[in-house]
Fold:
Amino acid sequence: MRPIIRIVIITVTSFVLVSILATPLNNNILRCQNSYYKRFNPVFEAGPAYDVLFVGSSRTFRGINPYIIDSICHVNSFNAGKDAGHIPDFEMTIKGYLVNHPAPKLIVLTYDFTSFSTPNEIFNYPLYYPLIENPVIEQTFKKYGYSTSMIKMFPFLRVTLLDDFTKINGVKMLINHRYEGMDTNEHIYKGYLANSNLHMDKSNIEKTQKRVYVGAESVSELQEIINMCKTKGIKLIVLYQPEYRFNFEKSFSNSDSVINMIAEMAHRASIPYIRHDTLEMCTDSMLFHDRSHLNINGAKVYSAILAKELNPYLSK
Structure:
């Protein structure tokens, strides 16, 4: 056998074997990230259209229950919040949704003080590879320098791009069908993933203070979201969700400047800016999972409050 033929056979065989071996690991990683994949599909793939889209970070997807919103407002809403989401994630989510759906009547964009801190990356970007056929995801990946062509050609290579924590959990799922710290509260309804009913430990609230970075690119991307919604006739509300006794806000030395920046942008664009960190519920630690995230009971209480506040905007 000629050397070149031998090399080709060995190469092809190696790729086939690696693909076969990587498939169960990739599948188990998908199961580890089950909450994400169930939630992302209705956003980036064709499916039902929604009247209201909630976009934000984990405070959004753990804190706003569409079932309660829908029952009070008589709409069809979806929670498109993402763990550790930042402005680039929010922009990709909204644009990616519009590829396969008509424009929603209302987008509620929730922000955190850290929303502007990573202007040039998508958090945990390999999670989106199964949805790479959405052109917005592919364009966003190219914008931030993430590979797409190799993953399209060799999908099994996706596992090599994941962080070590996710890889280890995938192996544990493959062996034991679970992993330590696995979220067993997999209640998902239209993008909402409930926290447990455990409440925060007030004695463990972090007292340190730091300065949060605000990237100019992220500010520009927020303005782009505002402009896009105006162009497409989408009502946009900027929202700051409840936190326990301002403890999250107090952890950042420049939080006031971030708040003023958002308020000014909203005022210039003539869009509503709602702050819910002064609600009475913000003094009740029994409603919080930690200082910035609501537990399942807090999400029920807050979703009802939010729904009543959104009603006037939906009836206009």
Remarks:
- The beta strands are 52-55, 77-79, 106-110, 188-189, 192-193, 235-240, 273-275.
